[in-house]
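Subject: Re: docking follow-up (flavin-adenine dinucleotide)

Dear J.,

Thanks for your patience while I sorted out the input files. As discussed at Tuesday's group meeting, I've set up the holo structure prediction with flavin-adenine dinucleotide included as the bound ligand rather than trying to dock it afterwards. The sequence and the ligand SMILES I used are pasted below, so you can double-check that they match what you have on your end before we go further.
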Amino acid sequence: MSNEPDLKPYYDAIIVGARCAGAATAMLLAKAGLRVLAVDRQAYGSDTLSTHALMRPAVMQLARWNLLASLIEAGAPVIETTTFHYGEQQVPVAIRPEPGLPGLIAPRRTELDRVLVDAARGAGATILHDTLVSDLSFDARGRVRGVVLADAAGHRRTIGAGHVVGADGLGSRVARLVDAPVLAQGLAQVAHVFGYAPMPARLSGYHWYFAKHVSGGLIPTNDGLACIVVSIPACRFDATFRADLIGSRRQALELLAPGLGDYATTYEVGRLKAFKGAPGQLRQAYGPGWLLVGDAGFFRDPLTSHGISDALRDAEGAATAIISGHAGALRQFQDERDSLALPLLAATDAIAAFDWSLEELPLRHKRFSEAMKAEVEVLKGRSGRDLFDQLGGRRLVSRHVEEFCHAS
Ligand SMILES: Cc1cc2nc3c(=O)[nH]c(=O)nc-3n(C[C@H](O)[C@H](O)[C@H](O)COP(=O)(O)OP(=O)(O)OC[C@H]3O[C@@H](n4cnc5c(N)ncnc54)[C@H](O)[C@@H]3O)c2cc1C
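The structure tokens for the complex came back this morning:
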């Protein structure tokens, strides 16, 4: 196969997808001494369809993994305030700094995903880009035993694995192949249209704008740019936006923040991108030989900018379950994920429904913030755990996982 490093016939874990969920999972498993392969059909350092506002849970994880400083050094500005604009009313909120966490950041995905991939490689994981996982291999009992790789030339190769982790996004092939049950479905479906312009000199921090049936955001990111996004109910996207993305976004931004639409259009850097929306979905997180992390396991509308936080949190939950290897660990991973994900899904859907008045919306934001606070508490609890030491270091962990895989 092209671009193929020296692949082994068997890995403790193979991760399908090597962006925020997959690369983070690979890094954590490799740090614990497991033999890890992560495969992504896209190129190293490539962009993806996503804005990049990180919320506190994501930044906490990155700080704990010692990756926050390099993202800031690479040019992601530190965000110290969030301002909510409810029509003409402005509600500024200061981001509380903590030791090692000066504020929030919104790195371009070309940076965030690359830093995570580099960290996974640094920890000893093998990462293979430009390669598709075309199928899974199963044993006679239906347990997943590996993946089938296919390169651009159509060469196929089967590699065995103790665990296959689907970190392959919303349209997850792994989820489809294992027939992962859907546990909860969201209702709202919102379209997002975004582009980049130089960060306006008079603004700083995140800005979130709201008006009837439309919202917007201004997200300071790398290279002195702001990502400027407009979000509308998906039905409105089909009816009006799709035919004229530039004009429709300009008009919507003008309504939300007079002057912003003209500014964003005049100083546009690059082309606009559009996501037509998809309803939220929570899938079963694990089964015989497989796990799901990131959007593959839990997708909620991007309106609350929480997908990357979910992805990093669940990457760690899944990695911890695999490493610990005891029978109930996967169940615990799923229970913890669901206890956090279900309130986040409901609170996101309530905002993404666009059926609120501007007076009522702050209450819905408060509900989302409460769901996120519960998540922050769980993450704080994790920082005290020294799982790898408990398991006795590299050699023991790898043997432990092998025994677990072969027994199950
Ligand atoms: C418009 C939009 C705006 C968003 N804005 C934000 C935001 O501001 N903040 C935030 O936190 N979240 C945001 N999100 C959500 C965020 O992008 C996702 O939650 C996050 O990308 C999930 O990461 P992931 O690693 O699970 O999946 P992905 O980032 O989707 O990565 C999956 C990877 O798997 C690879 N892959 C898929 N199938 C295969 C296969 N068969 N073989 C090999 N590789 C495969 C893909 O190539 C891809 O690289 C936004 C999403 C959208 C759509």
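A couple of observations from a first look. The longest strand covers residues 156-166. Residues 16-17, 19-22, 39-42, 48-54, 132-133, 167-169, 173, 192, 275, 294-296, 302, 305-309, 311 surround flavin-adenine dinucleotide (CB under 6 Å).

Let me know if you'd like me to rerun anything.

Best regards,
T.
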